[in-house]
Specification:
- It is elongated and about 65 Å long.
- It has two domains: about 10-125, Alpha-Beta Plaits; about 130-395, 3-Layer(aba) Sandwich (Rossmann fold), CATH 3.40.50.200.
- The protein is of the alpha/beta class.
- α5 (about 200-210) packs parallel to α8 (about 355-370) and α6 packs parallel to α7.
- The chain has helices at about 65-75, 105-115, 140-145, 150, 200-210, 245-260, 275-285, 355-370, 375-385, 390-395; strands at about 30-35, 80-85, 90-100, 120, 125-130, 160-165, 180-185, 225-230, 235, 240-245, 265, 270, 290-295, 310-315, 320-325, 330-335, 340-345, 345-350, 415-420, 420-425, 430.
- The protein starts with about 30 loop residues before the first strand and ends with a strand.
- The longest helix is centred in the C-terminal third of the chain and has 18 residues, at about 355-370.
- It contains ten helices and 21 strands.
- The chain has an eight-stranded mixed β-sheet, sandwiched between helices. A four-stranded antiparallel β-sheet has the order 2-3-1-4, sandwiched between helices.
Length: about 425
């Protein structure tokens, strides 16, 4: 990555490692992200007998990127901290520190008007939302109500890729180690832990814990492939609560798209973030289902759940399966109270919160996609808005999932449910506190 020492004049930061500023929320009011187009990011390099073909979109810095970053730093009196290519958007993202005596809104306004700049924004932070023969299966009342054993006769999420963008996960947990296909830590500079992280381990168990292995619990989609991308770091040792920011989230989401994930699980919420919105729009354009937890106690920080196309999930109340949030979007309600799930060091515990609810819906989405590969995210959303979580078994039993093509310009799939032979039209960052 492109890095440059801090400029003189930042006395309060003299003893700070510049890379640490990316992860310290107390400096968020002075850290900005600037993106600009760079055709070299996805341009295939010339092959020679010596270098063969190099990977496209690799995380490396070109001379052009360094040149533009340096120009912007000079023009606006900014201190470069870091930068990286966002291959799925075809842009380079530079991270800068503004000076003490500069108003951030003024700098952002100037940068936005600069023809070289694609996007300029604050660094934003998100918080996690935290509040068979398997011996503990009988304690998993939340999935027994879903008749999970019967559901697994139709689908187990086999070969469906779920990208868990969260904290790390216990990679050696006996109920998880066979389910995790890949992992990466995008927050290693501030949090080198991975298998010790609680929040991600808890979500992983809900989604993909091994079934019928005479160990622990059963996941809702036990044959799905889990890609663990750590973008969030625990607030303290042994803390289930965690935080992440625009920088780490963008890296992880971009990576998940490149890996061909079918589902993104984002059990987090925060302020509206233009860069993250662009990446999630790209994911939706690729028909990737995005599941996000929402926090009913803080209606101003509901992104990305508030974004159109994203499936927003909250913790259920008895007898409810959906609600309408402040933006008019319907929020799916799923189990999130006292959920037995996996913990680090091969442990298990009961955890509550909408993060767990989002994990339920991500895993259910994997079941639906395996059963009907042509189903689209908007169709999954409509299906869950019109059918209670505990009623899904009847849809599989009656083969009521349809993807009828409409004859139109793009022949988009626009029907999802057949009730009695009639199709219904589909409707087009703290981690959420457990």
């Amino acid at each position: 990555m492109y890095q440059q020492p801090l400029l003189a004049g930042h006395e309060s930061l003299v003893n700070s490692n510049d890379s640490e500023l990316l992860y310290r929320s107390e400096y968020a009011h002075r850290v900005i992200l600037v993106t600009f187009n760079d055709a070299s990011i996805n341009r295939p390099r010339i092959s020679t007998p010596f270098n063969k073909y190099r990977q496209r979109g690799a995380y490396q810095t070109s001379g052009w990127q360094q040149h533009i970053s340096a120009e912007l730093a000079d023009d606006y009196q900014l201190t470069p901290i870091s930068g990286w290519p966002i291959s799925e958007l075809g842009v380079y993202c530079a991270v800068f520190l503004i000076s003490h005596d500069t108003q951030i809104e003024h700098v952002l306004q100037q940068l936005t008007a600069d023809k070289r700049v694609d996007l300029a924004q604050r660094m934003l932070f998100y918080q996690t939302q935290s509040h068979y023969s398997d011996p503990y299966f009988k304690l998993q009342s939340h999935i027994q109500q879903m008749q999970i054993a019967e559901l697994h006769q139709y689908s187990t999420g086999k070969n469906i890729k779920i990208a868990l963008i969260d904290t790390g996960v216990d990679l050696n947990h006996p109920d998880l180690k066979q389910q995790i296909s890949d992992s990466h830590n995008f927050a290693e500079a501030i949090s080198s832990s991975f298998s010790e992280d609680i929040h991600g381990t808890a979500l992983a168990g809900v989604m993909v814990a091994s079934a019928d292995n005479a160990t622990g619990i059963v996941g809702i989609a036990p044959d799905a492939n889990l890609i663990v991308l750590k973008a969030c770091w625990p607030l303290s040792n042994d803390s289930i609560q965690a935080t992440c920011n625009s920088f780490t989230l963008a890296l992880a989401i971009n990576n998940a798209i490149k890996r061909g994930a079918n589902i993104l699980n984002l059990s987090l919420s925060g302020e509206h973030d233009p860069l993250i919105e662009k990446l999630l729009t790209t994911a939706l354009d690729k028909h990737i289902a995005i599941i996000a937890a929402t926090n009913n106690t803080n209606t101003e920080h509901q992104f990305p759940g508030s974004m159109p196309g994203v499936i927003a999930v909250s913790q259920t109340e008895p007898g409810m399966n959906k609600q309408t949030d402040q933006t008019g979007q319907q929020t799916i309600l799923a189990p999130g109270e006292e959920i037995l799930t996996t913990m680090p060091n091969a442990g298990y515990d009961f955890i509550s919160g909408s993060s767990l609810s989002a994990a339920h819906v991500s895993a259910i989405s994997a079941l639906l996609i395996e059963h009907q590969p042509q189903i689209r995210p908007n169709q999954i959303k409509h299906l869950l808005q019109t059918t209670g979580i505990n009623e899904l078994i009847s849809i599989f039993q009656n083969n009521r999932i349809n993807t009828t093509r409409r004859i139109s310009g793009n022949a988009d799939l626009n029907h999802v449910i057949d009730k009695g032979g009639n199709n219904e039209n589909s409707i087009f960052f703290n981690l959420t506190q457990l």
